[in-house]
């Protein structure tokens, strides 16, 4: 015989038991969290530098106003990033990743020795590789194709090989702690860090002898640059790439702000800055639709500027005859890139 109300009473009792069990589980988790979990409060500062000056190079910051350079030196500084990623390496093959604000924040881990890797997490073109092991962690940038660029003829035969072409990387900063000992404490230990730049800017300026007024669009390429950077050491990789970029037409010439990881294989005790070659390209499109390419060997200029600086080249000449309108001419507007559209390459 079934007694009325037994089913509902049983369900109510079961629900009470489950609720009690959940509460007890939460209490046990909190107890474990306090007893076995350490916390560190990361306080991040950002070093907003766009170039590094070396002993045999121009101190651009000191000489900027004296040389009458524009834009202002400080206007080239990267913006402060909007977020911070923190990777906690627990073993050589296991890690946890946390996203925090640009100011930092509290990060938890088990007590004991860890490695901590930090970088800004607001990038678009940066590609992170081999992050599972700290010693292999690397940042590169995305590929980009330009059919009209076929290499720099000003470079020697040994270095004129076809290079992989890429987008300029986004501003990137990093910080690494090789051995951090986390301890359990009622309050998080404070860790002050300075996020240092891993991507630098080259202010590239092209000067014209004649014909600037005929140019409607311009873009460039910088050959011989590092493909990536090791996140734990800041050393650039051995592989070289050509960075493709757009330019801005000024009343005095053409200018570009080119972001790059800098010279390849740097810093390295065996690195010789005179051993590699670097090339610069300018491609312009005139109002009549004609396209012209100009190339330079900038190895000497790069020798003292492995991580950002100023590259200036001149002698660009476009004749009045080349700029004449003809039956096939058309006016180029900003939106009329046509065959000039670069193609992002899949990863």
Write the layout of secondary structure elements.
Elements: H1 6-36, E1 38-46, H2 60-67, E2 83-89, E3 95-101, E4 104-109, E5 112-120, E6 126-129, E7 138-141, E8 144-145, E9 164-166, E10 173-182, E11 189-197, E12 200-210, E13 215-226, E14 228-230, E15 240-246, E16 248-249, E17 253-260, E18 279-286, E19 291-297, H3 299-303, E20 309-317, E21 343-344
Parallel strand pairs: 1-11, 9-15, 12-20
Antiparallel strand pairs: 1-4, 2-3, 2-5, 5-10, 6-7, 7-14, 8-21, 10-11, 12-17, 13-15, 13-18, 16-17, 18-19
Work out the radius of gyration: 28 Å
Largest sheet descriptor: 7 strands, mixed
The secondary-structure class comes to mainly beta
Average pLDDT taken over every residue: 85
The share of residues in extended strands comes to 35-45%
Which consecutive residue ranges, at least 5 long each, have pLDDT under 50? 1-35, 327-338
The helical percent reads 10-25%
- Major sheet: order of its strands? 3-2-5-10-11-1-4
User: Helical stretch count?
Assistant: 3
Give the overall silhouette: elongated
Distance between the ends: 70 Å
> How many strands in all?
21
Secondary-structure element series: HEHEEEEEEEEEEEEEEEEEEHEE
Describe the structure.
It contains three helices and 21 strands. The protein has helices spanning 6-36, 60-67, 299-303, and strands at residues 38-46, 83-89, 95-101, 104-109, 112-120, 126-129, 138-141, 144-145, 164-166, 173-182, 189-197, 200-210, 215-226, 228-230, 240-246, 248-249, 253-260, 279-286, 291-297, 309-317, 343-344. Strands 3-2-5-10-11-1-4 form a seven-stranded mixed sheet. The protein is mainly beta and 347 residues long. A hairpin with a 5-residue loop joins β2 and β3.
């Amino acid at each position: 015989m079934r007694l009325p109300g037994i089913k509902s009473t049983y369900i109510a009792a079961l629900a009470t038991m489950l609720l009690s069990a959940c509460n007890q589980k939460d209490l046990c988790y909190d107890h474990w969290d306090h007893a076995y979990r350490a916390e560190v409060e990361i306080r991040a500062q950002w070093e907003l530098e766009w170039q590094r000056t070396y002993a045999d190079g121009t101190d651009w910051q000191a000489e900027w106003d004296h040389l009458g350079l524009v834009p202002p030196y400080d206007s080239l500084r990267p913006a402060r990033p909007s977020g911070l990623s923190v990777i906690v390496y627990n073993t050589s093959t296991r890690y946890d990743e946390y996203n925090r604000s640009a100011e930092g924040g509290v990060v938890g881990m088990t007590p004991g020795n860890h490695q901590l890797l930090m970088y800004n997490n607001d990038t678009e073109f940066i590609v992170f590789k081999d992050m599972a092991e700290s010693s292999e962690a690397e940042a590169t940038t995305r590929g980009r194709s330009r059919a009209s660029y076929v290499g720099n003829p000003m470079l020697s035969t040994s270095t004129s090989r076809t290079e992989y072409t890429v987008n300029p990387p986004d501003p990137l900063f990093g910080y690494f702690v090789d051995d951090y000992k986390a301890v359990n404490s009622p309050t998080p230990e404070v860790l002050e860090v300075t996020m240092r730049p891993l991507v630098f800017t080259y202010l590239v300026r092209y000067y014209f002898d004649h014909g600037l007024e005929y140019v409607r669009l311009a873009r460039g390429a910088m050959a011989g640059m590092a493909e990536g950077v090791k996140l734990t050491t800041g050393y650039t990789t051995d592989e070289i790439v050509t960075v493709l970029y757009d330019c801005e037409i000024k009343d005095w010439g053409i200018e570009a702000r080119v972001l790059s990881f800098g010279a390849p294989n740097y810093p390295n005790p065996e690195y010789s800055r005179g051993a590699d070659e670097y090339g610069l390209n300018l491609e312009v499109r005139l109002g009549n639709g004609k396209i012209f390419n100009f190339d330079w060997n900038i190895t000497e200029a790069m020798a003292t500027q492995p991580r950002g600086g100023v590259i200036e080249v001149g002698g660009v000449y476009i004749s009045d005859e080349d700029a004449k309108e003809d039956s096939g001419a058309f006016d180029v507007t900003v939106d009329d890139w046509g065959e000039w559209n670069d193609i992002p390459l899949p990863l």
